[in-house]
Amino acid sequence: MERLTFDLATTSLRELNTFLHTDAKAGKVEAVTVVNPDGAHNIAVGLDCPINVEVIGHAGYYAGGMNKSATITITGSAGTGVGENMMSGTVHVKGFASNGAGASAQGGLLVIEGDAGLRCGISLKGGNIVVGGSVGSFSAFMAQAGTMVICGDAGDALGDSLYEAVLYVKGSVKSLGADAQFEPMTDADIATVAGLLDKAGLDHDPKAFKRIASQRSLYHWNADANQEY
Questions:
Q1: Domain-embedded: residue 14
Q2: Highest taxon of the source (predicted)?
Q3: Is residue 48 in a domain?
């Protein structure tokens, strides 16, 4: 098996993605390195084979989106929607991530070593997200399933309209969203955080995190609530 290098300064993004969906899927290569990404959008999207893709530099919008089975590493930062709707595999951002990281992810692991922007983990549907830094406002909005571990701080309205997803935050939380509440950490919670930190390669005390989950008061429409929740 071999490792190939694609230089986006001389090779089109279409050629790269076509290769990743054809020859790579056929098992002809073990790993791909992408150099000079220069913030290109849609790098390594929709992969459905266990290949390793390393992006040397910054990626634009939707890098690693709809990922299945692949391991994608971005040595720089990533634009909006990195790892969105991923099904399995790993997307690892060594730098920072913009808005909507991991949106609607149904499986897999998204690691962001730096900070993440607004709405990180919005509508999370089962994936796991570990953020080494802080997250912006409305992160985990309507998160339905899955786990988020936030090693820094969180902005306003964290976990607004949570369903069954669980959030763990080490730092301060500016405010919780509707129907989100702090809950006691259990031994199972500590083990979950420790496991995800280990997979992400981040060194934090899992006992220092706080658990946030849903109050479950928004599960059913209440006509008598007069829109006040």
A1: no
A2: Bacteria
A3: yes
Token reading at 78: 């990533």
Report how far residue 161's alpha carbon sits from residue 216's, in angstroms, rounded to the nearest whole number: 9
Burial degree of 140 (CB within 10 A; 0-12, 13-18, 19+): buried
Q: What is the pLDDT along the chain (229 residues), one digit of tens a residue?
A: 578 999 999 999 999 999 999 988 888 899 999 999 999 999 999 999 999 999 999 999 999 999 999 999 999 999 999 999 999 999 999 999 999 999 999 999 999 999 999 999 999 999 999 999 999 999 999 999 999 999 999 999 999 999 999 999 999 999 999 999 999 999 999 999 999 999 999 999 999 999 999 999 887 666 676 666 5
74 located within any domain: yes
Beta-carbon count within 10 A of 192 CB: 20
Count CB atoms within 10 A of the CB of residue 229. 11
Whether the model clears a pTM of 0.70, i.e. scores above it, the answer is yes
Whether 66 maps to a domain, the answer reads yes
Domain assignment of residue 184, given as a range: 39-216
For the chain, what is the domain count? 1
